[in-house]
Amino acid sequence: MRVISNEVIRHNKADDCEAVYSLICDMESRQLPYEQFRQIYNLQLKSDLYTCLIYEKEGTVRGCINLRMEQQLHHAGKICEIMELVVDGSCRSTGIGKTLFDAACDEAKRHGCMQIEVCCNQLRERTHRFYERQGMHNFHYKFSRSFTDDDDGTNRLGR
């Protein structure tokens, strides 16, 4: 746990689920099915592959970064992937994202990761600029194929 005045960065707990759910629904601009979210959240909480860091200010969760760390064949080493990084809308552009990103990099190094990666929707241009400011490079394309009936081929957030 890292404490900065009245701000704390800590590992998530089971009772953070609703706050993280709210943040991620806001990021995705849609309500996700809570029961499924809660089940996944609790599975990740128990898994050694996942680490979720919480940014808390004055007792309120203001942001989180969710990481997956795993050995990858094509790197012949351990990689940290940012699965989600989200800051409460009322607190964006105040340095919380950078603080969480830096804490995630420290966490990844402690776990022996050789690099940190993130996939980001092409529509999130502001987020792209954030990651570039953190020293990240856009070297990859990510392709996806939906197995749901609502796939019309349109790129939109919340998918």
TrEMBL record:
<feature type="domain" description="N-acetyltransferase">
    <location>
        <begin position="7"/>
        <end position="159"/>
    </location>
</feature>
<keyword id="KW-0808">Transferase</keyword>
<keyword id="KW-0012">Acyltransferase</keyword>
<dbReference type="Pfam" id="PF00583">
    <property type="entry name" value="Acetyltransf_1"/>
</dbReference>
<dbReference type="GO" id="GO:0008080">
    <property type="term" value="F:N-acetyltransferase activity"/>
</dbReference>
<dbReference type="InterPro" id="IPR000182">
    <property type="entry name" value="GNAT_dom"/>
</dbReference>
<dbReference type="InterPro" id="IPR016181">
    <property type="entry name" value="Acyl_CoA_acyltransferase"/>
</dbReference>
<protein>
    <submittedName>
        <fullName>GNAT family N-acetyltransferase</fullName>
    </submittedName>
</protein>
<dbReference type="InterPro" id="IPR051016">
    <property type="entry name" value="Diverse_Substrate_AcTransf"/>
</dbReference>
